[in-house]
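quick one, 386 residues, struct below
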Amino acid sequence: MNKAMEILRKHTMKIVLVLIVIFFSVMTEGQMFAASSFQALIAQNAYVFVLATGMLMCMLTGGNIDLSVGSFVCFIGAIGGHMMVRGGMSVPLAMLLMVGAGVIYGVVEGFLIAYLNIPPWIATLAGYLAFRGWGTALLNGATIAPMPEGFIKMFNGSVPDLFGGAGMNITCLVVGVIACVLFVFLQLKGRNDKVKKGYETESMTGVIVRCVLVCAVILLFAVKLAQAGGIPNNLIWVAVIVLIYNFITSKTTIGRYFYTIGGNVEATRLSGIDTKKIFFLAYLNMAVLTVISAWMTMARLSAATPTAGTNYEMDAISACVVGGVSAYGGSGTVFGMVIGATLIGVINLGMSLMGIDANWQKVVKGVVLLAAVVFEIMNNKEKTKD
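---
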């Protein structure tokens, strides 16, 4: 019984995600499993995965957050729109300058938080107010459109079918199979390495079950996206970012520093780690990832608008918390965040398909966020008892 409860606690959000998908599938009479729904899930929520990855790094340092990301998306969109549409600047140069603006803001924000000890929520709240006003002023309350075709395809297009399939993107299916093979190989190799080193490992049955379930999900997405026209380019951006940051947080020394700071910042400092540098990097990283999110938003809308980025910071924070990232710092994983972001995206999509008012959607997301925090607190108490 104890083992069953431990498994349940460990996989609660995954189980909840499955149940919510089943619920919306029933309520929408199967529309949730339409190919267009899978494509919409990725297109409408790609920015959440990118922003939540950066927010994860901030939260690991002690539950810190960045409230300015949504407003900064608006600001970056405004300067990008002026450069590419009204100024006729080449797309690569404009993108490089937007990254430069992100680096400058990240350096300033990181310096204020890490070296002047300004509380993160104060420093980022200032950015939240300033960049929304600045971006709206640059746009003069109007929309700049359309974005250059090459820029749109880079983030809102799809990978062409190399095999020329009729009615089904074969390339998408091939990539799905390759992803499954790689996943199974890495899982088996990881377990084998632990066994050789004498580490504690889970049973082979557990590994096989996980491989079957994950591969089933990958192949389902591959088939649905193949029917919808192929692999969206923004999915590739998300996958690359997620894999890079999963490697950083799980395999590198600097990634471990983020966790140790969240556990006890003073003990980390006394052990010789430059804690100020870690805080600085967390917010510099957040600013750069926000620029990428701004690109995705501009490409999806094919425009720069004053309302771009509204509530993006809340979506990113919600994805992290729902995905098991501790609100107090020191724990959480990139793939846990992915589960949380997917859960938030499924709720948004499901309620939209059901025609539920946007205001009630916010109510539901608020309840889900609160429930996730309560679950974390209760789960920690149970661990303490054990």
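The longest helix spans residues 170-197.
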